[in-house]
Amino acid sequence: MTQEKYVLVVRNLKKTYGNGVQALKDVSFNVKKGEFIAVLGSSGSGKSTLIRTINQLIPVTSGQIFVAGNEIQTLKGRDLRRARRRIGMIFQHYNLVDRLSVMQNVLHGTLGGMSTLYSVLGRYPEERKQAVLELLDDFSLRDYAYKRAGELSGGQKQRVGIARALMQNPEILLCDEPISSLDPITAGAIMDLLSVMAYKNDIACIVNLHQVNFARQYASRIIGIAHGEVVYDGPAGTIGHRDLERIYGKQIPLAGNMLYSTGEAI
Fold first, then answer.
1. Residue range(s) of every CATH 3.40.50.300 domain in the chain
2. Which residues contact 75 (CB under 8 A, 6 or more apart)?
3. What single DSSP character describes residue 101?
4. Tens-digit pLDDT profile for residues 69-105
5. Is the pTM of this model over 0.85?
6. Looking at the domain that runs over 1-86+170-266, which CATH code has it been given?
């Protein structure tokens, strides 16, 4: 199988921090366009490091990462910025500018595709503003377009974060524990939104999760990581007790659609 079949190819990825901690050990996997993948693992397993190496927020120690055929860790300057525009990032703590409006925060997702002058001056073409309003309609946020982001609830902030990522027109969405700060009902609404938007736009979505039930419900595929190594990579519907025990080092109940987690911070 060739790399051209995949929007993301990760090969023999290793990451060792300066203190000697080996966060990732020879991690390899491929991602097809439109796949919805949940990454499971205990705190400290390497999930966040993996997500952040893909778009080079964290440099790799060795290995290769190909985004749409481009080896991203070898790119610099304009070429790296162009490659990063293919990747939307959604953070656990939203990463919004609270003093700016919802409109301004979402428009920041288009900065990579604008001229330097527009970026510096913070001026946006009217058609982009209209595109934001149309997107906010889909997120039930149009009435909040000119409110400061700091005035929103946690669930609303995360929806703004997703809208900002989608404004890039990405091919890949990386979501680093996007629901861990939310109550179960709001978390379910956010997962609904991610699933619908990824499917609607044919975007590959990789979501770090602590909640096994959400992974089984929303993902088509689960990648399980333990101590920096991939110990499970397969369909979400077939993951079983032994697989979860390899991922977490303890027995985890499979409780249908019950709202439960692994006991990690959520």
1. 1-86+170-266
2. 83
3. B
4. 889 989 888 888 888 889 999 998 899 999 999 999 9
5. yes
6. 3.40.50.300
